[in-house]
Amino acid sequence: MNILVIHGPNLNLLGTREPGVYGTITLEEIDEMIRVRARELGVEAKVVNYSSEGDIIDEIHSSAGWAAGIVINPAAYTHYSIAIRDALAAVALPAVEVHLSNIFAREEYRRVSITGGAATGVIAGLGPAGYLYALDYLANVLSGADPE
Ligand code: DQA
Question: Is residue 27 part of a domain?
Answer without folding.
Answer: yes
